[in-house]
Amino acid sequence: MKREIDLGILFSRSGTYSLLGEASLTGARKAIAQVNSDPEFDLAFRAVERDPKGNVDDYAPLCEQILRESSARHIIGCTTSWSRKEVIPSLERADGALWYPVPHEGFETSDRIVYTHACPNQHLVPLLDHAFARHGTNSYLTGSNYIWGWEMNRLAREVGIRAGGSVLGERYLPLGATDVTRIVAEIGEMQPDFVLNQLIGPSQYAFLLAMADLRARDPYFAQGNCPVLSCNLTDCELPAIGAAAEGVIAAGPWFCGMPDLAEGVERNFGSSFEVVAHASVIMLARLLHGRPGAENWPLAQLLALPQPSAMAINARTHHTRLPVVIAQVQGGVFVPLKIMGPVEGDPYLTLRSETPRPALRMVP
Amino acid sequence: MIRRLNIPDLGGAHAAILHRPHATVVALTRQLEAIGLNVSSYWPDLPVAARSSDYLFLDVDTAYNEQFPWPPGRAPVPTIALVGSEAPGRIEWLMNFGADAQILKPVGTSGVYSALLIARATFDSRAEMADSIASLRTRLGQRQTVVRAVALLASRGKSEDAAYDQLRAMAMAWQISFEDAAERIVANARHQESEHG
């Protein structure tokens, strides 16, 4: 007889990053179905789903609603860093834990959160290493106007300058904005070695379309010269972008066709967002299995068990050890160029001496 | 003006916490270790070894001057105040102590990393400022010497402006500061005076 455990699910199914939210949701649902039908688990999850519809101000109230109106203490959720930061006070107030299955920009280790996707030493830094070696060190940086883009580009600037390169330009768009004319015109003029793109959703789709157009008319950008880089583009968005995604180089822990992270078997997953959300639920199920009542333990107590480190969760940083894959869109699918790792998450870039040290710009 | 501020390696750096055994110490230690620092906590005495740590956290609610073997405002390491009570007396104590950054209690999982960065930056700029103040003080003290040197040079038939320019040229030729050049001229004159009786 399985014991039933409420599990919060908090992803947006509409709004500017709905494809990412849908992918995470699909992964979480697949894992819940798997746990519930697997007699090896002494528990079954009952999903308590809420949809903030891409509205950042709805995350905290809905998070609190899950924790107050159900017995769920764990929530799988959030896509943007902005929304993640919004729910932390709710988690603290209502005594909950968040499993955050999406790449983030680091410099955060909440004791209420397990960060199960990649942080910069697992995506941005190896991606830049690859670009510097293959394409050069002169970059153009662009992104959506919020913490993810700002911090990732600050880090990229730092790493680039350390490598002797220079940043030829840096420009941001508001979330959801699609007027990329100025950015692409600037790139056309400056002819960087590569473009680092931290744009989200429709902004990214519009940007890649305009870049494809630039490649068709300017020989400097033809034949894959000056590739566009991304730390969050996955297989799940390729159909929405179509041919314009051709040549994009991305970093992530998983791309289509690789074995999944939780069990090392091949399943029919659509993207790393789906795989990591799935792995998060499976990891949680394994922690709760055989421990009636553990679903109400504080996260710290759960992570102090011996199992988390065997499952690659670091109890000190709350980050996970993940493979690092550099992949390029070729013929409509991501093809791995390089598979490394697994690498320990290092959210403050303090673990390894070869990781870049952050520097700040101060405006007195 | 935009200044670039380099942050020292926090991985493996050492933080000392001066606080009685308490949940605050547990939360702070957890966060510092997550960032990659080594942590030791002490109460009520700060051992000599702790003074060579890279950062010092102290509890403003309970701290008193005798715990710190340096005059107020002269901590040899970046200090971060843990502020609980906002009673004006405690804030006044904190102002006199001169911490480089502060965190409001209860200590959660945010605020620690930024406090480390701000404390280091404030500490460095404080040290830099102390250096420039000391050097300005020295130069101020040498002002009379400059006046005498200019007067000496002018007494050889130059205008005061020309004497001033000459002093500057000499300082450049000798590759020393303006004030040091003035000192040398005054000393030489004194020397010549004593030779010639």
What does this structure look like?
The complex is a heterodimer of chains A (364) and B (197). Chain A has helices spanning 18-37, 59-69, 81-94, 124-134, 147-162, 181-190, 201-217, 238-241, 272-288, 299-303, 307-310, and strands at residues 3-10, 43-50, 74-77, 97-100, 113-115, 139-144, 167-173, 194-198, 228-230, 249-252, 322-330, 333-343, 359-362. Chain A is of the alpha/beta class and 364 residues long. Helix content of chain A is 35%, strand content 21%. Chain A has two domains: 3-117 and 258-321, 3-Layer(aba) Sandwich (Rossmann fold); 121-255 and 323-343, 3-Layer(aba) Sandwich (Rossmann fold). Chain A is built from eleven helices and 13 strands. The longest helix of chain A has 20 residues, at 18-37. In chain A, helix 6 crosses helix 7. In chain A, the strands form two sheets. Chain A has a seven-stranded mixed beta sheet, sandwiched between helices. The longest helix of chain B has 30 residues, at 112-141. Chain B has helices at residues 23-35, 88-97, 112-141, 143-154, 160-174, 178-195; strands at residues 3-6, 14-18, 38-42, 55-59, 79-83, 101-104. Chain B has 197 residues and is of the alpha/beta class. Chain B is 50% helix and 14% strand. Chain B has six helices and six strands, in the order E-E-H-E-E-E-H-E-H-H-H-H. In chain B, helix 4 crosses helix 5 and helix 4 (143-154) packs across helix 6 (178-195). The chains are: A alpha/beta (364), B alpha/beta (197). Strand 13 (359-362) of chain A pairs antiparallel with strand 1 (3-6) of chain B, so a sheet runs across the interface.
